Amino acid sequence: MNLEHINALKTLLSLPKKIAIIPHKNPDGDAIGSTLALWHYLKGKGHNAMVVAPNDFPKFLKWMPGAESILNFEKENTQAMDRISSAEVIFTLDFNHLGRVGQMTASLEAAEATFVMVDHHQEPSDYAQIMYSDVRMSSTCEMVYHLLTYLNAEDEVTSEIANCIYTGILTDTGSFKFKSTTSTTHRIVAKLIDKGADNTAIHSRIYDTNSPSRLHLLGCALKNMVILSEYNTTYITLSQEELDQYNFSKGDTEGFVNYGLTLEHIRFAVIFIENREEGILKISFRSVGDFDVNHFARKFFEGGGHTNAAGGKSDASMAETTRYFESLLPQFKKALTL
């Protein structure tokens, strides 16, 4: 974050403000962790702050301190729209394009607040007056910790803030195994534990709360796995019927795509999940090494993200989409088989 924007943010927050804090649609651990961490800090400084999420978030994140205070735009629409329209400052965390908030987009575009973006995804748009964008960061939660240091507030990190930030770093780094995890990441994690982050309990709450139906859904996903050895690629499909059969709830497919990368020689893993309500297939891309799934998702599937983790969508059927996906692979054979 450059000095000009640090000073601008300090000035902006020097007096109590009415603030809305926004994660992306279908918020994950990093989105919820970063927004709640910032919410705890801003409330502690006397601001009238509130997190407004575009829709619900997974059950395994609802233990997080402050989660019960999050406004759900889908379910609490009038209150959420009032909060956005009356906000003097709007923080957007873990996304960098207003299209990532679904039906909230129009409300944010109409807002007259000062926008502050904190995000680590590639190719940010320019809607924010104050920006902290860094694609090298492991997570937005790691960036929130740095943001607090820029605000001279590192000593104000409470156990609630520490638990929220730790959760986002843990989930967005794949439990610290992704390439974006640095020595700085680990030093921050050590400080968070010292400040009260319960690392053992957090890991258990995130990863050890499976329902039988989720494990059965995972079994279905793995049974559907297609391995394309010629391209060191694998993909999983899940239809709406299969989701319904195993009583799918939000967050149940989190991490399924990563199972493909546990196979020897696989460099590219994808999952296609049907969402009949929205009329699309939601797609997650993962890779190892230098194969850029951000570029792949942006070019072919209206998505984007990071070099090794990205998302996209398709309006076509499952059969049409997977055929199209397979048809793309020959042009990337050299990159996938180096």
From TrEMBL:
Keywords: Hydrolase. The keyword Iron does not apply. It comes from the Bacteria. It is an enzyme of class 3 (hydrolase). The keyword Hydrolase applies. Its EC number is 3.1.3.7. Pfam families: DHH (PF01368), DHHA1 (PF02272). Residues 245-316 form the DHHA1 domain. Residues 18-169 form the DDH domain. GO terms for molecular function: 3'(2'),5'-bisphosphate nucleotidase activity. This is Bifunctional oligoribonuclease/PAP phosphatase NrnA.
